[in-house]
Design a protein that fits this description.
CATH superfamily of the largest domain: P-loop containing nucleotide triphosphate hydrolases
Strand order of the largest sheet: 3-4-2-5-6-1-7
Number of strands: 30
Shape: globular
CATH class of the largest domain: Alpha Beta
Helix content: 40-55%
Number of helices: 37
């Protein structure tokens, strides 16, 4: 029987048959369509052979016709995918005699020059690199020859500004090819998971054929909540397994042990987490429990070399498991994956389908994965997502709309390509891109006028002009600064500054926070979670955040909060439906086990939670509760509307009440909107506002109110950089940023900031639908005093940080160890002799006497100030004139020596601490405390110093 490989060039066919026994279903469907010249959107799971289905016809073309380079461009969203693809194609190119090379941000200047002089037949690129080569004089000549444009993992691009930029870049590329007399290039897009293929196909082109190969074997997904009892038995066998440095709750231990068990059972495992930090912490904890475990971490923050080594070691079998984030979600070749674990709910159906699809990496095998839930909300959410994933009910990809900052960059790009380019030509090219299909000429003109004001383009008129805007006469001419602006803004991904987190007790860097988190949450007193520990912010400097460890995790903000993808409206509503079914069914456990792929323990946990709740919020009922928790007043709107809708409603309500109550504490999750109130008696105002919210007013309310938020100002900084208002590497104060916001408050810049927030952080459309359901009575509202169990789940959410809180004794021991290891210098104030440089723990009472003159007036000096202090003492003893500053320093040195005379080594301990001078040291020593009591007094004084330091003048 003839197969699709037989239609390929004989040499290509020979190589194909030497590698593959037979074509896969997707190859049977796709190869003929591409050879026919069709634009296609290819949808098929990882391991189905879809990449080869697109490449083989291109190889056939290169072998058959030997066309001019560059014949094809292959665009991927990640540099790591570029690297992986190059390795795969090099085998074919070596045997078929065509050239292939990669172009991305790390490509050297020499390599770029070689590509321009000797272009490859097939160029592998990122979306950003396409923007760069489009304006190169030599490269443009080669780009005219392109016959095929391949876009890999297109679902990663259509829902963000990278996709918006790419869509216009492709139209610019098509314009170049067609205007040179060549035929329109063929576009081939690939993806594993898309919920709305028709919309994505329109993003590709107007005449794209969708080719979707359903897999015969459905994926297996199961949700578990590991039992603590199993872990307890293991502890009895080996009590030394758990070191003194880390303590785990029974539930956490059970989850860790379950992961270890699965890793040991399977040949090769991917353990997916939702954030980079969880991957790091989880990996660390697992190594503590089992030092023989062959695991490594893989995420985007690690260096390229570290990631490549982890990928290669896993592929070669040197590692049993990789703990990873979305960095391995896409089709990077890491060899055979036997099993997938997802730690916590994946939050979206597409995520679990993509991730579990990495296992069973052949069509003959079933992809298999398990979601490890960590609390009740997680169980419900994971159950719904698993059910939807098995049935292929993937949420739609939201196509990102027109973005004025991306538009500005593309206008300048077109002006670089063609001198004095007609305005109408720019408009026609950009409007062909799907995200800009509704662009008006007036909007484009507003952007051009801003670019002219910023000095990047001129707007010139040919012919006679009058009061009416004659777009046909208008031309856009580049200015000198256009080149710098364009090349500095090739990426739409913002450059995010990181702050080092500095533990004031251990004096160690414990991690980093990105600038967005600091901009929104960075005020002294805020408690956040990083590296499995809660920290309170004491002070923020230009590049450091000084913190102290605290015990509570409740109300702490996780540093990874910004990384979490939103839970869709559809998932949250089905969680509400499942809650309702539990209250309605006679045997709810059987109902759950029949309809959802969960363990019996998960089903029991969900049913028990609902049964012990007097009031159950569902898809048809919102329950508003108000009451006190830990001396604070809360009002909780229990609504199953998902992350973005709850955030939108929460912000609108808080805005409308802010005039009456001032600042209102707001926290949202997919199932709750939580307000912190000054008085419980205010509850009715919140309810009245919610019930009276007009759907059509939501956008207007938020547009007016967003201006003064930290979120708006942070987003403004990114948008302003993309427009070229602020330079890419600029460092600026909040006050400067606020002034800029005011200057551009009525411009297209302001409009784009709101546009970005509404598209990425809020959901106006689904919020409008939700409010309409409330007004129609399809969703009822009940108001009850006191906070139920379900409300409290949101208020006291204990973010899954793998380990329990760091105990107070451990914090104290870290501080004590650091202080005793601190090096200090001892100088005689009588003769300025340097006695020695010692660690605090080495100082004893009997050595606190000068061996040269016998004096006991010994001062304690930080090692970095020894030379300066010694010179000032000599100057003082020789009665030389001192400045006022020098006098104060000498006085402190003498005062410290008096304390050493009186209290000996204890005085040295106190004076060696950070920020403790002689006056504070005298108060501490006057208590006459010894040993640990003394250290605790020093610790409290250090904390006080950090808290008040920012108020001191230099």
């Amino acid at each position: 029987m003839k197969n699709v490989f037989d239609i390929l060039h004989p040499e290509v066919k020979r190589l194909v048959k030497s590698r593959f026994e037979k074509p896969t279903p997707i190859q049977e469907m796709v190869i003929p369509k591409i050879i026919e010249g069709k634009n296609v959107l290819v949808l098929s799971e990882t391991g189905s052979g879809k990449t080869e289905s697109c490449l083989l016809p291109i190889f056939d073309h290169l072998t058959n016709e030997s066309p001019k380079p560059i014949s094809a461009i292959y665009i991927t969203p990640l540099k790591s995918l570029n690297r992986d693809l190059l390795k795969r194609i090099l085998w074919w190119s070596g045997k078929l005699g065509f050239d292939v090379s990669v172009r991305h941000g790390d490509t050297t200047q020499y390599e770029r020059g070689m590509q321009a002089q000797n272009p490859p037949d097939l160029l592998i690129s990122t979306p950003e690199t396409l923007q760069a080569v489009l304006t190169g004089k030599l490269m443009r000549e080669h780009l005219k020859n392109i016959k095929y444009i391949v876009i890999d993992e297109i679902h990663e691009l259509v829902n963000n500004k990278r996709g918006v930029q790419l869509s216009v870049g492709l139209e610019r590329l098509k314009e170049l090819i067609i205007s040179s007399g060549n035929r329109k290039p063929q576009i081939i897009a690939l993806s594993a998971t898309v919920g709305n293929p028709e919309d994505v196909a329109k993003f590709v082109s107007n005449n794209t054929e969708i080719i979707h190969a359903e897999r015969k074997e459905k994926i297996k997904i199961r949700v578990v909540y590991p039992s603590p009892e199993v872990s307890e038995k293991l502890i009895e066998k080996d009590e030394t397994m758990y070191s003194q440095n880390f303590m785990f709750s029974p539930d956490v231990r059970a989850r860790l042990e379950y992961i270890i068990k699965k890793i040991n059972e399977k040949a090769s495992v991917l353990v997916f987490t939702n954030t980079r930090e969880t991957a790091e912490v989880l990996s660390h904890r697992l190594r503590i429990l089992d030092k023989t475990l062959k695991i490594e971490t893989h995420h985007s923050s690690l260096s390229k070399n570290v990631r490549i080594k982890a990928e290669d070691d896993f592929k070669e079998g040197k590692l049993k498991a990789l703990l990873c984030t979305s960095s391995l979600e896409l089709g990077i070749d890491i060899g055979s994956v036997n099993f997938v674990l997802q730690y916590n709910s994946p939050r979206q159906v597409s995520k679990i389908v993509q991730r579990v699809g990495r296992s069973g990496h052949t069509l003959e095998r079933t992809s298999e994965g398990i979601i490890i839930s960590t609390d009740v909300d997680d169980c419900f959410e994971s159950a719904v997502i698993a059910r939807k994933g098995i049935r292929g009910e993937i949420e739609p990809s939201v196509i990102y709309g027109k973005s004025y900052d991306v538009l500005a960059h593309q206008v300048v790009g077109l002006a670089l390509e063609e001198y004095k380019i007609p305005f109408n030509k720019v408009y026609e090219i950009i409007k062909r891109a799907f995200p800009f299909r509704n662009l008006t000429k007036e909007e484009l003109l507003d952007v051009c006028k801003l670019l002219q004001k910023l000095g990047f383009v001129w707007l010139d008129r040919d012919g006679v002009s009058n009061d009416k805007e004659l777009f046909s006469d208008l031309r856009i001419k580049r200015r000198r600064n256009a080149f710098t602006y364009y090349y500095n803004n090739l990426s739409t991904i913002p450059d995010v500054k990181n702050y080092k987190i500095f533990d004031t007790f251990s004096r160690q860097v414990v991690g980093t926070l990105d600038a967005e988190f600091v901009a929104i949450h960075g005020i002294p007193g805020t408690v956040f979670i990083v590296k499995g520990q809660s920290w309170k912010i004491l002070e923020i400097t230009e590049d450091k955040i000084f913190v102290e460890p605290v015990q509570t995790l409740e109300a702490a903000i996780p540093a990874w909060e910004g990384e979490l993808i939103p839970v869709p409206y559809e998932v949250a509503m089905e969680v509400g439906q499942l809650r309702r079914k539990i209250t309605e069914e006679k045997d709810p456990i059987s109902y759950i086990l029949k309809n959802y792929p969960v363990s019996k323990r998960v089903a029991e946990l969900m049913v028990n939670t609902i049964k012990k709740s007097e009031r159950v919020p569902t898809d048809r009922k919102i329950i508003i509760e108000y009451g006190r928790y830990e001396d604070e007043n809360f009002l909780v709107i229990n609504s199953c509307f998902g992350s973005l809708v709850n955030e939108t409603i929460g912000r609108a309500v808080s805005v409308l009440l802010s005039n009456k109550f001032g600042s209102i504490g707001l926290k949202t999750d997919p199932y709750r909107i939580i307000f912190k109130m000054k008085s419980l008696s205010d509850w009715k105002d919140f309810v009245d506002i919610l019930e009276g919210l007009q759907p059509k007013m939501i956008e207007q309310i938020l547009s007016l109110a967003m201006l003064n938020t930290e979120l708006f100002q942070w987003r403004f900084s990114h948008v302003a950089k993309r427009f070229g208002i602020i330079s890419k590497n600029a460092d600026f104060s909040k006050s400067y940023l606020r002034r800029l916001v005011q200057v551009y408050s009525k411009t297209i810049v302001h409009k784009e900031v709101l546009n970005e927030i509404f598209q990425e952080k809020l959901d106006l459309k689904k919020t409008t639908n939700a409010l309409k359901m409330i007004r129609k009575g399809e969703v009822k509202i009940e108001v009850k005093p006191e906070l139920s169990h379900i409300s409290l789940l949101g208020i006291v959410t204990r973010y899954e940080v793998i380990g329990s809180e760091k105990p107070e004794t451990e914090i104290f021991e870290i501080f004590k160890k650091r202080l005793l290891e601190t090096e200090i210098g001892l100088i005689c104030c009588n003769c300025t002799h340097l006695l020695s440089i010692l660690k605090v723990k080495e100082v004893k009472d009997h050595i606190l006497q000068c061996p040269k003159c016998g004096s006991k007036l010994i001062c304690v000096v930080p090692t970095r100030r020894l030379t300066e202090s010694k010179k000032l003492l000599e100057k003082f003893l020789h009665e030389k004139k001192l400045t006022n500053t020098e006098k104060r320093i000498v006085e402190r040195l003498l005062e410290s020596s008096y304390l050493v005379v009186a209290s000996g080594a204890d005085a040295v301990k106190v004076l060696a601490a950070r920020g403790i001078g002689p006056k504070v040291a005298s108060r501490i020593l006057s208590k006459m405390n010894k040993n640990d009591d003394l250290f605790r007094d020093i610790l409290e004084a250090e904390k006080q110093f950090i808290k008040t330091k920012r108020y001191w003048s230099a």
